[in-house]
Every structure is written in C-alpha cells, then in structure tokens.
Amino acid sequence: MEKTVLEIRNLTKRFDGAGVLNDISFSVREGEVIVIVGASGCGKSTLLRCINRLEQPDGGEILLDGKPVGGGDMVAVRRQIGMVFQSYDLFPHMDVLGNLSLGPVQALKRPKAEVEAEAKAALARVGLADKLHALPRQLSGGQKQRVALVRALLMHPRMLLLDEITAALDPEMVREVLNVVLDLARDGMTMLIVTHEMRFAEAVADRVIFLDGGHIAEEGAPDQFFHHPQTERARQFLNTFEFDSIKKS
Amino acid sequence: MDTEFMRKFLPMYVKAAGLTLRLGAAGILLSLVVGAVCCWVRFAKVPVVRRVAGAYIELARNTPLLVQLFFLYFGLPKVGIKLSAETCAVTGLTFLGGAYMAEALRSGMEAVDPVQNEAGLCLGLTPAQNLRFVILPQALATAIPAIGANAVFLIKETSVFSAVALVDLMYVAKDLIGMYYKTDEALLMLTVAYLALLLPLSIAFSLLERRLRHAGFGRAV
Ligand SMILES: Nc1ncnc2c1ncn2[C@@H]1O[C@H](COP(=O)(O)OP(=O)(O)OP(=O)(O)O)[C@@H](O)[C@H]1O
Ligand SMILES: [Mg+2]
C-alpha cells in the first residue's frame, strides 16, 4: 500500500456567498495520477488553487504528507507542490534557462552551476535542448508549456497540479505536451490533472473524479467512468464530447 | 548677435546649469523614492495611508509648482519653519515629482499580468523574491518611458526656482536681459542651455527603453 501524499477533507469554498466547492474529500497516493473532469465552472481550477493556497478555502482540511497545509508557512508547501496553468506563465523577461533556474536557485538556494546542468538535461528530455537561451516570446505555445512543466519539475515537487495545460494550444501542439505528461506518469510522478482531453484522461488516469455542482458526483477507474458511468450527470457530461450523437437536422 | 557678450557671460550660464542640474537630479531621485513608497502603499492596500497617498497625488498634480514653492518659501516661515531656498526648491520639486513618479510606477505595476505573480508564488518564491525577480523587472520596463518623460518634465519645471531667488538658468537670463537689454542673446543661450541638459537625458532614456524592449522586457510595441 503506497503512502498518501495529499489528503483533502471536507473542503469548502464560497465566492461571494455562492458555494463553489461543497464538502470535497479525497486523497492521492504516491505515484497516483488523478484526473478531475467536469463542466466549465464546476470548480476544478478552484479546487487546485485551494490546494496550494492561491485561494483561501472556507472550510475543511488539506494535508500534505500528513501535515496540515496553511495556517503557516505556505512558501514551504508551495515548494513541494508544482503547478502549471492553462495560460502561458513563463517569465517574459528571462530566457528559458533563467525561467528554469529561478526557483531552484532562489527558493531552494541550490548552487547555480548544478541547477543549470540539471536544467539543460531536463530540457533535452522534452526535446528542447536548443532552446536554452530562447526568450518565451520566441517559443510556440507547445514549447512554452513544456518549459513550464520542466520549470515545475526542477523544484523536485512531491506532486504536480496541472490545470488544463493544453487548453490554449493548437491541436498539433497538444500531443507534444501530453506526451511529456504521460512520461511523467510512467516515471511515477504524483499528479492531479484537470483536462478536457478525454482520450488523454483515459490514458493517463489511475482514477477519475467527476465534479458537479461543487460535489464529487462520481469517482472511479477510468475505463469504468468513461465506458460505464454510474450517474446520469456523468453520462450527460460525457455525451457532450460525443459528436456522433449530434444529429443533422 | 553680440558674440562677445555671449562669450563673456557663458560661465554664468554654465554655473547656473550646474545648479539646475544638481537640484533637478536631487528632486528626480527623491521623487522616485516618494513615488515608490506611494505606489507600494497603494498596491499593498495599506488602510488609511493608501487614501492619504491618493489625496497627495491629486493635490500635487493639480497645483502649480510655483504655488507649492511660494507656500514653502513664504508661507512656512509665518508658522516658524524657515527653510533655505535650495531646500524649498528640492522639497517642492519632490512634492510635485513624487506624484508623477507614483503614477508612472503604478502603470508599470498594473501592466504586469496577475498570473505572473501566481506563477512566482507557485515556484515557492517568497513574496519579496517574487517582487524582486518577477514583478519589478517587468513593471519597471513598462514604466521606463513614463519615468523618463517625468524626469525631463521635472528639469523643465526647475525654471520656476528663480522665483525664490535661486540663481538658476532662468534667473541668469532674466538678470542679463534686465541689465543689458540683450534679449536675443540671453534667450538664445537659455534655450541652448536647457537643450544641452535635456537632450542627453531624453536620448539616454530612449536608448534604455530600446534596450529593454530588445531584451524582451515589457509589452511595448
Ligand atoms: N475569484 C473569483 N471570484 C468570484 N467567483 C469566482 C472566482 N474564481 C472562480 N469563480 C467562480 O467559481 C466557479 C468555479 O470556477 P472554476 O474556475 O474553478 O471552474 P472550472 O471548473 O475550472 O471551469 P473551467 O473548466 O471553465 O476552467 C465559477 O462559477 C466561477 O465563476
Ligand atoms: Mg478552470
């Protein structure tokens, strides 16, 4: 039985009185990949942002390796949880190497030469060895997101939170980014992934969580969820991805 | 044109230009400090102080420097505070410039995408590290053109210093016209003197701006 990395207990979050997350509880084991799906606005991003306190939860508890998150040193917790967003969030005034080494050198106080050597090797693994000194604006969307993934990985986090990292990409670039994530999953990286790419979700997930109305409406193994959904809401949601069901009139 | 006259009084202009430059530079640097503090107070949303900073900015930007100077030089002694003419000049210039610099810095801060702040925090940077390595470099790059324009504007504003009996460029020109009636020569030299001060400043800021843009900073053009 693997260790539990992240445990979420009865998490609630309201915006202006409206409940966005209601009593969410689940845990993530070491090496596990959980994919969170649900309709737009159901609270997927809010859930991820509560985990590393970009949003302040209104109730419940979050434990990282058994220790409560929040109420203290959030900086230390964020160093253990990597996050990549949908929008390209590389630092535009630094080249790729600068983007990659800022966190390890400044936050972790590691020696610069050592970090840069590691950054070079990591960049080569995602096929961007020649982009070491490129500026973010000189990269394609897919290249930027791969650099953003490497930037998060160089912090050697306990787990990664990925929020629709391919949503703003052209279709031909989605693949190159998702392949990196699949490699990470194979290497045993613990991840919480929000995505609208259902084929990818099925391929990468150990477990799927379906959010609806601020609750976990369904939770299960990917082949069960995608092929035999238990709830009516999940069936409706999955149907929106089935173009066959749209009849020509 | 009386070139003999011009040659004779050139040293007076040079000396006055030195004063203009010295007081102007002091005012610009202090303005940046005041502006940075105001900007910080507003972004950190410090209660009350933030409103005071807002009120100060409106007051300073909507009153002429000459009036501010008269207040410092002629008004304050009435309540027992007597400042030297130079102190009044630098204080007045800083009072005016601080408000303009605060606005320039604010526009720079506002141009930084909020997601940049979150990206830095997610990397485990402390808020101070985030400000230093992620936010400020981008904000300053955007603010540089406005800061440069303010610097030039403030040097030009020093031309009212003669009103508090400081022997600046304007004072020298007015003096020479009054004494010798060489209006054309005195004004020509005055114009050239201001150009000699301000052109290099403008060019320096343009070069800086271009370099930052070339380095991929900011979002200009
Ligand atoms: N800062 C905020 N202030 C107020 N309401 C917010 C804020 N952030 C999110 N919300 C609301 O909370 C709800 C959940 O938003 P969230 O971004 O978590 O949804 P999501 O599932 O990630 O959607 P999408 O798939 O479109 O990204 C939405 O109704 C949204 O309008
Ligand atoms: Mg979202």
What does this structure look like?
The complex is a heterodimer of chains A (249) and B (221). Chain A has 249 residues and is α/β, with parallel strands linked by helices. Chain A has one domain: Rossmann fold (3-Layer(aba) Sandwich), CATH 3.40.50. Chain A has helices at 44-51, 74-80, 96-107, 112-125, 141-153, 171-186, 198-204, 222-227, 232-239, and strands at 4-15, 18-29, 33-37, 59-64, 67-68, 81-84, 159-163, 190-194, 207-212, 215-220. Chain B is mainly alpha-helical and 221 residues long. Chain B contains 8 helices and no strands. Chain B has helices at 3-43, 49-61, 65-75, 85-110, 114-122, 127-157, 169-180, 183-214. In chain B, helix 1 runs antiparallel to helix 2 (49-61), helix 1 (3-43) packs across helix 4 (85-110) and helix 7 (169-180) packs antiparallel against helix 8 (183-214). The N and C termini of chain B lie far apart (45 Å). The chains are: A alpha/beta (249), B mainly alpha (221). At the A-B interface, helix 2, strand 6 and helix 3 of A face helix 5 and helix 6 of B. The complex binds adenosine-5'-triphosphate (ATP) and magnesium ion (MG). Adenosine-5'-triphosphate binds at residues 15-16, 20, 38, 40-46 of chain A.
Whole-number count of domains of chain A: 1
Briefly note the CATH topology name of chain A. Rossmann fold
Report the major sheet of chain B: none
Approximate shape of chain B = flat
Number of separate strands of chain B = 0
In CATH terms, the superfamily of chain A is P-loop containing nucleotide triphosphate hydrolases
Enumerate the spans of chain B where pLDDT stays under 50 for 5 or more consecutive residues: none
Task: Say which CATH homologous superfamily of chain B is assigned.
Answer: MetI-like
Q: C-alpha Rg of chain B, in Å?
A: 21 Å
Unreliable stretches of chain A, pLDDT < 50, 5 or more residues?
Answer: none
Give the SSE string of chain B: HHHHHHHH
Strand order, largest beta sheet of chain A = 6-7-8-3-9-10
Q: Report the sheet-strand fraction of chain B.
A: under 5%
Q: What is the structural class of chain A?
A: alpha/beta
Number of domain units of chain B: 1
CATH architecture of chain B: Orthogonal Bundle
Number of strands of chain A: 10
Q: Helix share of residues of chain A? A: 25-40%
User: What number is the mean pLDDT of chain A?
Assistant: 92
DSSP helical segment count of chain A: 9
